[in-house]
Amino acid sequence: MPSSSKRISPAKPATKSAKPRRPFAVRNSKIHGKGVFATATIRKGRRLIEYVGRRIPESLADEVYAEEDGKPSHTFLFALDNGDVIDATVGGNDSRWINHSCAPNCEAVGEDADGEEHIFIEAIRSIKPGEELAYDYSFEFDEPHTKKLEKQYPCRCGSPECRGTILVEKKEKKAKKAKKAKKAK
Known about the structure:
About 15% of the residues lie in helices and about 25% in strands. It is of the alpha+beta class. The chain has a single domain (about 25-185), classed as Beta-clip-like (Beta Complex). The strands form three sheets. The protein has a four-stranded mixed sheet, with no helix packed on it. A three-stranded antiparallel sheet has the order 3-9-8, with no helix packed on it. A three-stranded antiparallel sheet has the order 4-6-5. It is built from three helices and ten strands, in the order ββββαββββββαα. A hairpin with a 2-residue loop joins β8 and β9.
């Protein structure tokens, strides 16, 4: 009888505990360029991701990402209350692909930790698989809004509530904050 030799495979190394799978993925968007889409049901109130990147002064962001031919450059900037900006072009993650909507299903939430402001994206309602994640950018300028300025910052969300621009008046942004604070009480 011929002898058979069996190969003994080496023991598999112990696996590290797997990171929990994110309930979203980056894909092409009908709103603008790339977008972030739910791959599973996301419950209201779930914190999805932190908006990260290098932190720079707003004045440097204005210099680095200056308008070209009267048109704003495409940026991944998130302005903080302290005057700094998170520039997700450098060191950013998938949060930078979350588009704007005038009828959002997420919101950006600021939280202070370790003496720094952090921005998290959280679901403000249940989100079904396949839905694009979006929050209201609430982009504001010190100067009054003109039709020309609004055309420079168009909204493409397509919702019935669309205001046609990602811009908000300063008073509108303050009213939203006051409304949130009142709800939290």
